[in-house]
Write the structure tokens for this entry.
Amino acid sequence: MANTPHELHEEFPEKKQAISDLKSSDGHFARLFEEYHEVNRAIHRAETNVEPTDDLHMMEMRKERMVLKDEIAKCLAEV
């Protein structure tokens, strides 16, 4: 899904290198990164009706993405 909105390199364009470095050196960050992308892609599939879902599930996924993004932002702020 090349055009999935909210990809981390778009959300944090100034942190591309830090994201790459942390993915390879920090297991916790790597897990956050993977979880974020799994949820983000699930949201995109639901929004584009590839895998439709109900409003409650969509809201829960968006909240989960926001929590993961906040945790990722904290990690990136430390580098």
Summary: The chain has four helices and no strands.
